[in-house]
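Course assignment 3, question 2. Fill in each field.
Student: A.L.
Task: Predict the tertiary structure for the chain below.
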Amino acid sequence: MNEAVAVSDTEFHEIDYKALDHIIEDEFSNDKENLIMILQAIQNRYNYLPQPALTYLSEKIDFPLSRIYAVGTFYKTFSLEPRGRNIIYVCLGTACHVRGGDKVKERIQEILNIRAGQTTDDMRFTLEPVRCIGCCSLGPVVKINEDIHSRISSDMVQDVLSKYE
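Answer field:
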């Protein structure tokens, strides 16, 4: 169906520097102490952390770009690569695993023609396996954006994904 492709920052997003100024100056007062919250706001806007936005942030708050990258790569919540509009988190924790979580992940990979950590070429979906979503009694569990799909089987995957296309 889809193939994963790499997309450069300049091909994927045009950086809106006025919007970045609003985030950095108005929401967080140019305060480097708010770095994680600033990065969260940038990621909410672009669905990842574009390199030009990080370079601009470094200059605006007078903070080394290398340290911004250190934070951006340390926390799993941040992505330095473009991600799909819909992030699919497949739980592979023990409870979900024994109930068929791996089969659900494999079915998603088959339908979308991507592997774990990849994004479809139409930028609709990114697949992210996780160790626990915190819904162990409802496993296997798939979280798409903020929606939890519980007791999901591999036979149900196509119907669930179709709600996001």
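Instructor remarks: DSSP finds eight helices and four strands in the chain. Confidence is low (pLDDT under 50) at residues 1-11.
Grade: pending
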